[in-house]
Amino acid sequence: xxxxxxxxxxxxVVLLAAVLLFAGGNRRKRSVEQSTDMSWSSxxxxxxxxxxxxxxxxxxxxxxxxHSVQVVTKSFARTYSKEKELAHAGNVYILxxxxxxxxxxxxxxxxxxxxxxNELFIAVNNPDPVLAQQLxxxxxxxxxxxxQHVGWVQRYTDVSIPVDTSFSYNGMVAxxxxxxxxxxxxxxxxxxxxxxxxxxRVAYSRGYIYLLLNPYTFxxxxxxxxxxxSALETQLSYLKDYADNVYWDDFYxxxxxxxxxxxxxxxxxxxxxxxxxxxxxxxxxxxxxxxFESKRRQRIIPDKPVLxxxxxxxxDAIGQLYYQRHDNYNLAHKMIVHLxxxxxxxxxxxxxxxxxxxxxxxxxxxxVAESDIRLLLxxxxxxxxEQHVSDEYLQEFYKRIQLFYxxxx
Length: 409
Hints:
Keywords: Membrane, Transmembrane, Transmembrane helix. The chain crosses the membrane at residues 6-25, 207-224, 274-292. InterPro entries: DUF4350. It holds the Pfam family DUF4350. The protein has two domains: 38-271, Rossmann fold (3-Layer(aba) Sandwich), CATH 3.40.50; 310-407, no CATH class. The protein contains 14 helices and 13 strands. The strands form three sheets. It has a nine-stranded mixed β-sheet with strand order 1-13-2-3-12-11-10-6-7, sandwiched between helices. A two-stranded antiparallel ribbon has the order 4-9. The model has no long low-confidence stretch (mean pLDDT 83). 45% of the residues lie in helices and 16% in strands. The longest helix is centred in the first third of the chain and has 31 residues, at 4-34. It is α/β, with parallel strands linked by helices.
């Protein structure tokens, strides 16, 4: 328990560091949320920053007869295989992203989805080349940039209906446009700031695919500028008002490179800052627990008490027994037997011959003076020869044995 103050100090330091980190993170978060920089637009339905699509996502139910919008967090191929409703007509699927990183399975699933009579709205800066090959269009890339007073940034034109409206704001301007289309199946619906076509509708079987090369029209900064919400209403007015199901894709907007495998639920969780913070904090706490609690704790082992000299206790017990009966010789004999047994078991010595050599060896092993041992052995010899022991002699013999037991090591 002497390490407890160290644990308390370390815990306080970690807590203070977490508080400072959290406070700094909140300040940075507020700064980012208030920024109008759209260089790193996320187009996420949960992002309330300038480049997020939170406002557009919240407006969708009003544009589709207050129909609830389902959020998709997996690739189109996986979603199409699990959502049986996508195989039937009457659905609207909206995909908004910077780049469109798909697989051939995704493109095949998209075309299968559209074929029965569904509608797919794709708003990206760079559509997938495989999709371009399937729908016979080509895109010329031109740099996107933050507003440099170019006037309007998106215009909607449709020769079949009287739509000719332009919108502007001080945000990101998309420069890509369609340089080639299949006029037999494709209709131009809008142009960019250079009056180049960037919004088309492609008829595929009984359904339609809408391609808009300006995803910034879905961002919070664009829609909240003046009356730009009308731009969202215009570009989505071509879709079914009473769609059976409306889907918002929140998968491809989080892709930063080509897919290398199936998208996992972990990737979905790691999208959100709060979940990331919770995960890293859990890992940090686990590491701290391992560092400070891995040392094995056990209760203090009490000191083992010194063993009593049982020989003395035995001699006392025998002495009391025989002294009460006043059988001095028998008592002395018992004391001699016990003493010799003690020497044999403790010092591994032969007690049959009690000569000078025995005295010298026993003195070295027991650390008792030779004179004391010699006197004790003489008394033993006297008792064995006389066979009669007076009270005074017995008491003296008892004292000598006691001294021997007490002084031996």
